[in-house]
Write a structure and sequence with these properties.
Blueprint lengths: L3 E5 L12 H13 L4 E4 L11 H18 L2 E6 L4 H9 L7 E5 L7 H15 L4 E5 L1 H4 L5 H8 L4 E6 L6 H8 L6 E4 L5 H6 L4 E3 L7 H13 L2 H18 L6 H9 L17 H7 L1
Parallel strand pairs: 1-2, 1-8, 2-3, 3-4, 4-5, 5-6, 6-7, 7-8
Helix pairs in contact: 1-2, 3-4, 4-6, 6-7, 9-10, 10-12, 11-12
The structure holds ligand LZUJQKHR.
GO molecular function, one term: 4-hydroxy-tetrahydrodipicolinate synthase activity
EC number: 4.3.3.7
Pathway: Amino-acid biosynthesis; L-lysine biosynthesis via DAP pathway; (S)-tetrahydrodipicolinate from L-aspartate: step 3/4
């Protein structure tokens, strides 16, 4: 279900500051036609925290329509810090959502036992499979391979978006002996090629808005064992990701998409600030 490259869509804004739903739909169809296995609505890249309820609903609805047309998976991002609110949001997911990407509760640092209890409770309530979003440099909470393995045993826990800022011992542990029915997706764009080489099922990658076909080929090449092709592609795409992440995501990406005429403005909402022209030019 999760295999391949999933694109966490940016939320483009009109010059008046509204969500540019037409541009969301166009971008969604374009990346799916270029080889993405699915979309993630309301990820960090989509500036979910800066959208109001109506805007979030509009983004989900627009992405759901594109995914339904293309037979692709729509995953919806969720990042509430308490279990009750997250469970409520899961139960309220609209038609068309095929999975939920749920962040490890951030800021609170409930400990690994708390994280396990959180996801176990959510797994009991959720109408769609869960993907655990493990990103300790944003959440402040470590989660080891042993905890992820216990959670992986639940039939409603489908995988993890693994984004620890590098390849660590826990990643090697999980990829070396993957829990059945549980997929590891790379969530750090720079490390997608090495993680695929070690057995990751795919990635959720903001960078894959650009050169989507090559990112999809990268996953296919590693999965097929075509090492020379995969390695060459991986190095080329890592250079693109490094340029896109030179400033806080998705500021550079939006600058590039706008420069290419794919979104109406490069605008981001505060506290994000637009990327510098130099960073955008370096990623073009
Ligand atoms: O929104 C996402 O999903 C992603 N967010 C990450 C981040 O902004 O740190 C980057 C990754 O490419 C996907």
């Amino acid at each position: 279900m999760l295999r391949g490259i999933h694109v966490p869509l940016v939320t483009p804004f009109t010059p008046e500051g509204e969500v540019a739903a037409d541009a969301v739909g166009k971008l969604a169809r374009q990346v799916l036609d270029d080889g993405a296995a699915g979309l993630v609505a309301l990820g960090t890249t989509g500036e979910a925290a800066a959208l109001d309820q109506e805007e979030r609903a509009l983004v989900i609805e627009t992405c759901a329509r594109a995914c339904a047309e293309r037979g692709a998976l729509l995953t919806v991002g969720m990042s509430a810090s308490d279990t009750r609110t997250t469970a409520r949001a899961l139960r309220a997911l609209p038609e068309g959502a095929g999975a939920a990407l749920v962040t490890v509760p951030s800021f609170l640092r409930p400990g690994e036992r708390g994280v396990e209890a959180h996801f176990t409770a959510l797994a009991e309530e959720t109408p769609v499979p869960l993907v655990i979003y493990h990103i300790p440099y944003r959440t402040g909470q470590q989660v080891g391979a042993a905890t992820l393995r216990r959670l992986a045993a639940h039939p409603m826990v489908a995988g993890v978006k693994y984004a620890t800022g590098g390849l660590d011992q826990d990643a090697l542990d999980l990829l070396g002996d993957p829990p059945p029915g549980f997929e590891v997706l790379c969530g750090d764009d720079l490390y997608v090629s090495p993680m695929l080489a070690l057995g990751a099922a795919g990635g959720i990658l903001a960078s894959a808005h650009l050169r989507t076909r090559e990112f999809a080929d990268l996953a296919d090449a590693w999965h097929a064992g075509d090492v020379p092709r995969a390695r060459a592609l991986g190095h080329r795409l890592a250079a693109l990701s490094a340029a896109l992440f030179a400033e806080p995501n998705p500021t550079v990406l939006k600058g590039v998409l706008h420069a290419r005429g794919l979104i109406p403005t490069p605008d981001v909402r505060l506290p994000l600030l637009p990327a510098s022209p130099a960073s955008v030019a370096a990623a073009l």
